[in-house]
Amino acid sequence: MEARVKRRALLLLVLCIWMPMEVLGGTRNSTVSSSSPSSLFSRPRVVNIGALFTVNSVIGSSIMPAILAAVDDVNDDSTVLSGTRLNVVMQDTNCSGFIGTVDALQLMEKEVVAAVGPQSSGIAHVICHVVNELRVPLLSFATDPTLSSLQYPYFLRTVTNDYFQMYAIADLVDYYGWKEVIAIFVDDDNGRNGISVLGDALAKKRAKISYKAALTPGASRSEIDDLLASVNLMEARVYIVHVNPDTGLSFFSKAKNLGMMSSGYVWIATDWLPSVLDSSDIVNADTMDLIQGVVALRHHTPDSNQKKTFASRWKIFKGVKTSNFNSYALYAYDTVWLVARALDLFFNDGGNVTFSDDPSLLGTNGSTLNLSSLRVFDQGHKLLEILTALNFTGLTGQIQFDSQKNLIHSAYDVLNIGGTGLRTIGYWSNYSGLSVITPEVLYTMPANTSTSNQHLYNAIWPGETIKRPRGWVFPNNGKPLRIAVPFRVTFEEFVNKDKGPSGVKGYCIDVFEAAIGLLAYPVPHVYILYGDGKRNPSFNNIVYDVAQNKYDAVVGDISITTNRTRIVDFTQPYMESGLVVVTPVKEIKSSPWAFLRPFTFQMWCVTGAFFLFVGFVVWILEHRLNPEFRGPPRQQLVTVFWFSFSTMFFAHRENTLSTLGRLVLIFWLFVVLIINSSYTASLTSILTVQQLSSGIEGIDSLISRSDPIGVQDGSFAYNYLIEELRVSESRLRIIKSEDEYVSFLQKGPQGGGVAAVVDELPYVELFLSNNNCIFRTVGQEFTKSGWGFAFQRDSPLAVDLSTAILQLSENGELQRIHDKWLSNNGCSSQNNQVDDTRLSLKSFWGLYVICGVACAIALIVFFCRVYCQFLRYAPETEEPEISEPESARSSRRSLRSRSFKDLIEVFDKRETELKEILKRKNSDNKKQISHSSDVQPSSPA
Question: Has keyword Cytoplasm (predicted)?
Answer without folding.
Answer: no
